[in-house]
Automatic annotation (TrEMBL):
GO terms for cellular component: cytosol; mitochondrion. PROSITE patterns: HEXOKINASE_1, HEXOKINASE_2. Residues 224-458 form the Hexokinase C-terminal domain. Pathway: Carbohydrate metabolism; hexose metabolism; Carbohydrate degradation; glycolysis; D-glyceraldehyde 3-phosphate and glycerone phosphate from D-glucose: step 1/4. It comes from Takifugu bimaculatus. InterPro entries: ATPase_NBD, Hexokinase, Hexokinase_BS, Hexokinase_C, Hexokinase_N. This is Phosphotransferase. SUPFAM superfamilies: Actin-like ATPase domain.
Length: 486
């Protein structure tokens, strides 16, 4: 066995069984050299995704977000945030307090989107959103204030500006007509104008990874990476403008939404995909798409474990060769079971409880083998995530020609937050893969709400600074003219 976490829980498994088990688990156990190779491949794909012509066919999309800076600590004011990503959406009132370096959620309200509205005309959906926003503004006595709005819209969009975002396609059960190919900010503003009973200020479109980075960035100004590892996975980071070939301009930086879940969609991860990964991909709603996400994120980890346990049972290695009906059902082994099984304190009790729940007849050796399987698959997830994160931190360090990079990663997602060993293993592995980078990890609090407000606050600060600069340049020109005239 290698030195992954799985090797710590081998006692109680007979030696001959261990040797056989190793044969099944070996494809999941990636050496440091292999992880370095994976990291290198992602860096190459990131460059392709940033290219003016190569991005069309790049598996890692590297989408410009038009977020041009992280917080500098001087942001302040009241903001609205709108978070739409499923059958419910949230409206929030957020206050940014400069003196305390805090982003406070003053109040929020959840609104439901009826099923028929998810499939009806787009105008009806946006009228409903505008009505809920209006109710919130009215009930919180915010009428009369024209507050800026941060809009988290968690559907595939092509962002053209910070306040212009074109819906590429609906997902998550939505199919509203007249929205795909349209600017969602424009549709929202038109719905608010149709009501005519309140106004909003500037709008900033926010991806959830960017919200994660920005909600941490106010507390820690060195936060320049946002990472989500939950049901799905993604990351964003601050890239040098001169490398963002699809957007005009050479100066400064821009946040790039990597969409790293698509890494491997061109077959570049075939050598580390196990037969179980291939089965998970083939059975998914989008075969061949988001290969990396399917190897590491919460939506799929439980199913990878289930398929492995089914194979071990078929080969008469587990449960005396007797699978239960429940175990044979896709999705029956939930990802949260992995976290429960790996909790140190009640480890074997938890395994035994879960196996009984799945209708299996087990003995203690079976329980120990199941634990090692869970350990191995969650460990691979953490190590692959570390390889991807190392690709980003090493790229930032090289971009800036630094011997040593000190940076902070804002993180969100249930796999990172709930799994007992994931964060520790991710951090230990990234230190090995990016030894010249000192990385601090900060868990995001409400990135899609507070982060959306923060993006808006930063956009306002930059606009303010730009106006001041223009005014001072204008004054300088007037003075020069006066000098010439004199």
């Amino acid at each position: 066995m290698n030195t992954d976490r799985s090797s710590l829980h081998l006692e109680g498994i007979p030696a001959d069984k261990l040797i056989t088990l190793q044969g099944y688990l070996e494809p999941f156990q990636l050496s440091l050299e292999k992880l370095q190779e994976v990291s290198h491949r992602l860096r190459r794909d990131m460059t392709r995704g940033l290219g003016k012509h190569s991005h069309h066919n790049a598996p890692v999309k590297m989408l410009p977000t038009f977020v041009r800076a992280t917080p500098d600590g001087t942001e302040k004011g009241d903001f609205l945030a709108l978070d739409l990503g499923g059958t419910h959406f949230r409206v929030l009132h957020v206050r940014v307090v400069e003196e305390e370096q805090k982003v406070l959620k003053m109040d929020s309200q959840i609104c439901t989107i009826p099923k028929e509205m998810m499939l009806g005309p787009g105008q009806q959906l946006f009228d409903h959103i505008a009505a809920c926003l209006g109710d919130f503004i009215s009930s919180r006595n915010l009428k009369g204030q024209t507050l800026p709005l941060g809009f988290t819209f968690s559907f595939p969009c092509e962002q053209k500006e910070i306040d212009k975002s074109i819906l590429i396609r609906w997902t998550k059960g939505f199919k509203c007509s007249g929205v795909e190919g349209e600017d969602v900010v424009k549709l929202l503003k038109e719905a608010i104008q149709r009501r005519g009973d309140y106004e909003i200020g500037t709008v900033a479109m926010v991806n959830d990874t960017v919200g994660t980075m920005m909600s941490c960035g106010y507390r820690d100004q060195s936060c320049e990476i946002g990472m989500i590892i939950g049901t799905g996975t993604n990351a964003c980071y601050m890239e040098e403008m001169k490398n963002v070939k699809r957007v005009e301009g050479e100066d400064g930086r821009m946040c790039i939404n990597t969409e790293w879940g698509g890494f491997g969609d061109d077959g570049s991860l075939k050598d580390i995909q196990t037969t179980f990964d291939v089965m998970v991909d083939e059975a998914s709603v989008n075969p061949g798409v988001h290969i990396f996400e399917k190897m590491i994120s919460g939506m799929y980890l439980g199913e990878i474990v289930r398929l492995l346990l089914v194979k071990l049972t078929e080969d008469n290695f587990l449960f005396s060769g007797q699978a239960s009906e429940t175990l044979l059902m896709p999705g029956s082994f939930e990802t949260k079971f992995i976290s429960e099984i790996e909790e140190e304190e009640h480890s074997l009790e938890n395994v035994e409880h879960i196996l009984t729940k799945l209708g299996l007849k087990w003995d203690e050796v079976d329980a120990r083998v199941v634990r090692v399987c869970c350990d191995t698959i969650s460990s691979r997830s953490a190590r692959l995530c570390a390889a991807a994160l190392a690709a980003i931190t090493n790229r930032i360090r090289n971009n800036r020609k630094l011997d040593h990079l000190k940076t902070t990663v804002g993180v969100d997602g249930t796999v990172y937050k709930k799994h007992p060993n994931f964060s520790e293993e991710l951090q230990a592995t990234v230190r090995l893969l990016a030894p010249a980078c000192h990385i601090t990890f900060m868990v995001s609090e409400d990135g899609s709400g507070k982060g959306a407000a923060m993006v808006t606050a930063v956009a306002q600060r930059l606009a303010r600074q730009s106006r001041l600069l223009e005014d001072s340049e204008g004054e300088d020109e007037e003075e020069e003219e006066e000098d010439e005239n004199n």
